[in-house]
## 1
Amino acid sequence: MEHLLDVKNLSTEFNIDGTHLKAVDDVSYHIDKGEIVSFVGESGCGKSVTHMSGLQLIPTPPGKITGGEVIYKGIDLLKLKPDGEEIRKIRGGEIGFIFQEPMTSLNPVLTIGEQIMESIILHLKVGRAEARRRTIDMLKKVGIPDAESRIDDYPHQFSGGMRQRLMIAMVLSVNPKIVIADEVTTALDVTTQAQILELLRDIVKSMDTSLILVTHNLGVVARYAERIYVMYAGTVVETGTTKEIFNNPRHPYTIGLMNAVPRLDDPKDKKLVPVEGLPPNLANKKDQCPFLPRCVFRTEECHSSPAPSLNEVREGHAAACYVDVSKVQNNNIVEDEVASSMIVGEQEKPIINEPALPEENLLEVNHLKMYFPVTKSIFKRKVGEVKAVDDVSFYLKQGETLGLVGESGCGKSTVARAILRLYNPSEGEINFQGQDISKMRKKVLRPLRRNISMIFQDPFSSLDPRQTAESVVGEPLIVHNLVNNRNEYTQRVDELFRMVGLDPALKNRVPHEFSGGQRQRIGIARALASEPSLIVCDEAISALDVSIQAQIINLLESLKEQLNLSYLFIAHDLSVVRHISDRVAVMYLGRIVETADWETLYDNPKHPYTKALLGAVPIPDPFIEEEREHVVLKGEVPSPLNRPTGCSFHNRCPIATPECKTIDPSLSEIEDGHEVACINI
Amino acid sequence: MTQFIIQRIYQTVIVLFILSLFCFLLIHMIPGNPVLTILGDEATPEEIRMLTEELGLDRPLPMQYLSWLGGVVQGDLGTSIIYREDVKDLILKRLPPTVHIGITSFIISIVAGVPLGVIAAVKRGGWIDGFITTSSNFSMAIPNFWLGILGIYLFALNLGWLPVQGYVSPTEDFWASQRYVIMPSLVLGLSTMAILARQARSSMLEVIRQDYIRTAISKGIKTRVVIRKHALKNAIIPVVTIAGLMLPNIVGGSVIIEQVFNVNGIGRLVLQSVFNQDIVVVQGCLIVLAIAVAAANLLVDLSYGYFDPRIRYK
Ligand SMILES: Nc1ncnc2c1ncn2[C@@H]1O[C@H](COP(=O)(O)OP(=O)(O)O)[C@@H](O)[C@H]1O
Ligand code: SF4
Ligand code: SF4
Ligand SMILES: [Mg+2]
């Protein structure tokens, strides 16, 4: 059968300062009509470049398509002139591209109507009035309220989720045959992600359009894709139907990915198995299996042979690997490797039954409020308040991890900053080690500061880029006067480096010489330097790739055990929070709406918002996803400036009753340690 | 947008207020007694007393300032010590050539500079880019007066295409006026043109690697349309800022240009008055120029609203 799009042996290079970076290396794939096909892999593995090459969207120079064919309707797209009539008809007209960054992918100085109409007029050859009518129809179809008036608005007047809807409207308005969605939900919250992907799927299915879903999220793949291509280091390493691949993964990298991600349905004690090491440098690639240095299945043959090519292992399922992993007792290998690669877990502790937590709380936050004034005009007249955190209470014991989840903008980071006293709380108490630090003067507070540290998403973003790793880690030692001389300082810095699994020899390097995972290790070392009892982790692992993410999660967990640390773990990834937390609090619009121990919260959620959040998280298992009901939460998080009356969730709540508009529910205990703020449960 | 305008006007008023303070204090910045400096050593006590009174120097400083400012607001800039003429009239007489040349040179620098920068950016790395970039770097390094003299020598004396120097008002003879104005305007505007070209080039290069340009290309739009419709309006925003910042440059440059081309404008008036120690005239000219620059800057700022909807809808 002839495929709708048939790509054969595509290769793309980037030539930068004389080095050839093989971003795409001999990739072949095909798409059939109406299919949803997913490309999975970590960042930098060439997913975007692969798809941009086909439409000649690669910046040349430095990019160069060095070989292959991209056959669409019998024409090789690579043979067409890059700015010629023929390819421009296909580009945008027949094959649409939706990019990752919704915030920057629309032109800020043109109205959204103009941008969508432009496509329609160009490809469908209709007049402006007709194009405008179609645009409004399309805006309605993608769920933009008041489409008739909003068509004349500019992109900055829309939220990130809405902008991604606009992109979908723009691309689909010309009835393309193929839509390439490149990480379209990566920057969005889970509920928005679910909204966007459901919308995209429904539209392409109704139009019989094919969808290429590029993502690093295995859950998204399992929920939406029919067929998969797994990419690694610029090559396709495995392909097959979604069910086949999840059921019977045959490439060690695919297996590694699956073991590295925490899942909502994991047993709690499941140890994540990170894929150790780093992805290879694509410059000067050797003709060898690219996964070799990180592979736990490698044999002599792998070392001595050229890079393996895709081999059919079953009907429609191919993997690029010399070893038949289904015949190897892989569990043993994996366990061994983990043990030997664990740097921190050396002093194997005998497993004691969960140590009893102390009676008194390490941290107790009572009725914390954090309001920011909203000023208007040049006279800085106060016209209102953003109630970023509005009456939040929780506690944390020594040695415990409390997870704080919620969509972006719900006040998680503000809570963290208030606890660190980077903000002065408007009201409420923050009792830390028995003292209220919420109103403490800076001078009195200083000696206490060393007991609370913070780990950020990117530890270097707020630091001088010329600062060495050593000074990043050592700074708290000096600030808090924790060392007496140069010698002690050096010893302590080296010790910290080893604690987080870094070679102290790297300490004179500057930030950009480290990978994302290494940078986060440095951030952790810095946080540990002052020997704190509490560490606040604000989205500490969100920017990392899944295989690296698992390494950092394991590190945080073993450090906690060794040093009896407490974590306030803030993240938007609910699976990660479930994996790492003892108790979890769910925030919505500046309030905690539900809190419980992790098991209760995930197995028996009561608040409709918690249920919606959990329902939106895709589970990386196509068989489970098939059975699951997908209830998508409507609407967007309202601005904290005009919080809905009564229960602030009432405008999105699926079980709201009329009273919800007037009664403002407060947290009440429904069973031991499980508190919910809802009047209807 | 209304708020943006109000805010800008408010800021302009504050800036003008501070500038007026400087202009006023100028008279006190001259070392020694200003009256003695002006009159010279042979002044009689009577003359000294009269000038002191005329300048109001016998009153307390804040009072002096307020009455001076009051005068300025009502259009009374005092009387020239040397010419014994009303300063306002003096300035009004000398203003047209300066404004004419200034505006012409500003327009030339924008109309030529921006497209040159855009072309250089689009053809980045090619010979056109190299030519534009090199010549704009070169233009910025040439001093105005040198270029002016060179121009006179070449186009007026040697080729005889343009008049050597002087100024004719457009109301008198429109075409002759253009012939007089073109060379001083070009000379005055050249460095601004070069700076705007450079700014337009770098801002265009910045814009064409933005995600929304990639989006536009992925829609199948012609490169030419992408540049004109999607890139230009974004790229122009920082150029407008720089253009506003260049205004004082043009005003300052006019002092030299008017000298070289023998144009009887404000620039020359300032220079003559400084040499004559005619402080009242210097004060008057400076305040008028400050108001002109501030007003032009205000217009430039307001044009942001046209280019950038994010400001319009604030
Ligand atoms: N414009 C570019 N210039 C140089 N290198 C690039 C460019 N775009 C992509 N690359 C390189 O190509 C490789 C593949 O990138 P990409 O396709 O974006 O990965 P993915 O989409 O899978 O995250 C990376 O090593 C990246 O650094
Ligand atoms: S070919 Fe060898 S090294 Fe490569 S993935 Fe397979 S087993 Fe691992
Ligand atoms: S109080 Fe009402 S609106 Fe709020 S969560 Fe409960 S049912 Fe929904
Ligand atoms: Mg990508």
Note: Residues A 608, 647, 649-650, 653, 655-656, 660, 665, 678-680 surround iron/sulfur cluster (ligand 3) (CB under 6 Å).
## 2
Amino acid sequence: MDKMNGAQLTIKLLERFGVDIIAGIPGGSNLPLYDALSHSTTIRHVLARHEQGAGFIAQGMARSSGRPAVCFATSGPGATNVMTALADAKLDSIPIICITGQVPQSLIGTDAFQEIDTYGMSIPITKHNFLVRSARELLEVIPAAFRIAGEGRPGPVLIDIPKDVQLEMIEFADWPAMPQRECVKHYRKQDILQAAAMINAAERPILYLGGGIRHGNAHDAAIRLAEKNNLPTTMTLLGLGSMPTNHPLALGMLGMHAARYTNLILEECDLLLVAGARFDDRATGKIAEFCPGAKVIHIDIDPGEINKLRTAHLQLVGDAGSVLAELLPQVESKNRQDWLNRMAFLKKENPFIMPGADDPCMPYGLIRQIAALADHETLIATDVGKHQMWVAQAYPFCRPRQLLTSGGLGTMGFGLPAAIGASLAHPQKTVVCFSGDGSILMNIQELATAVEQRANVKIFVLDNTSLGLVRQQQNLFFGKQYFASEYQHHVDFVTIARGFGMQAFALGASDDPVATLTKAMQTQGPCLVHVPIGRNEEVYPMVPPGAANKEMIGGENHASA
Amino acid sequence: MQALKESYPCPPSDASGQKVLELTVNNHPGVMSHICGLFSRRAFNMEGILCMPIGDGKLSRIWIQIAGNSHLDQIVKQLEKLEDVRSAVLHPAEHEVFAKLEEYFQGS
Ligand SMILES: Cc1ncc(C[n+]2csc(CCOP(=O)(O)OP(=O)(O)O)c2C)c(N)n1
Ligand SMILES: [Mg+2]
């Protein structure tokens, strides 16, 4: 018989399920958990400076490793602070487990100090959540949380544990095992054969890969299928890296900030083979005009995504890696010369234009220069804004889980803590964080965490003294009425970083920018590089929100026109 | 697998009459929030709902009346994704469970 309190039981279960790092902040109602954690010899606690930071640190660990990661917050303000990171994980299907303290059950419903309905508040932004009512329930709830977070389409799980449950003593005979994840497979052999027949019969097929490829470890299968049948392949923001950028079949990202040729060739396809993607409006533009002549084969592990926005002619509900591997032997080797010629022609006529690609002080040039200094193992985190889209367009991604970016929720403040989390999970790798002068301020306090943890993160702040992507929309769609998007007061980011005890470099003051960037990339531990960027550097092409993808603004090939 | 309709975006599954959904769910204080929240946040139309524990009280039965022009396929699939939903059965015609209750819902 084992005897312990609920908090000790929680920590022991986390240890048994292989958790080795927890990010969080203590407070009145999770102190028993912290007391139990202080006695753990296998779990390292990472003290964040804001619970949103803790949530994104957990996300950084989960996104880079694929394994569920854990964060802690106290009741009330701790719980409300962590909500944004949970919502972000929900929309991008990231497996994190958030354990919050709650006021004792006797006080629930009395408006007690730091009482908030954490359970009710987190329903719409988690895959599932629990309010634990006895220490014994923990024996079921904690294993279930790990199963749910990782099973099928992954997602965040919240466990709210009242303080009296944390302190309740229980005796029990057996430790629960890690529950088996159920394997989803709702298709038959004949569906595979029909899909293969549709692919073989298509004249202008395109493979469209999303974030599900990374979850399903399906990139190898996807690349082999594309190569065998010569399928031009496009990727969503979260799918980037599924096929290396320099692969001859790779079309890069589709949608709002895609290269012109990518959106144009999608217009012409007659078959769209979709795997682990969900027809998000940033990818499809006006859905009714997306790939107008295409039949759709939709592969997804979540049946709810099939026919949600675009009717599938054939659905294959299951793990993307397994489905693609089963398709491979059934699909013919094809050279598709006409279609590839058409792709090459559209690419030549409508290439992706990268102004300033050779100047390391310009957005594209900076990103290309960092890529040249990085190795294949380097992880890339971004914040949200123009800088994020420049990275998505210009960084040569070579593998899944290399890019950590907030796609579905588009959360400013994601980048720095996510980079710290990735670095904690992969201490031997360099993690680059591209941020903006707006976004970095949304979780700037985590610079302290980065220094304290000696996280190997290199932060590049692209400072255009504005909320750039908002300003760009005002430029294009609101008659240049720049309102609330230009900062009047300029922050000295280099001094701020140094104030946190971090090395910092000012690229604007450097005589030799390449040397400065090289030095930053070679710095041991964390550092920050301030990069001044002109306010008028825009992200092109751009599809106006709500318009069809063929209606792109900017990025024209003036050389050949 | 049958080939589906060629048109898109996906049309409502059925444009006529009301439908009744029968759910078997885990019985705990949060489950109604999960179900009702799903309907409101996905803009699914719920016209009526009944919930009572069944058996030894570990499970509950929920009856939901929905408008016929709803995206029934999506409603069922999203409900089935909820961890607390054990089963979801769609009754194609108007179900007598709501008809029998009519006398309790008279007047304006
Ligand atoms: C938390 C949050 N608030 C507001 C927005 C809306 N928004 C999208 S991009 C953006 C500007 C980002 O500015 P910055 O980080 O400086 O990036 P830039 O576009 O200038 O590169 C804003 C305000 C958002 N995405 N997230
Ligand atoms: Mg900016």
Note: The interface with chain A takes residues 1, 3-10, 29-30, 33-34, 37, 41, 73-74, 77-78, 80-83 of chain B (CB under 8 Å).
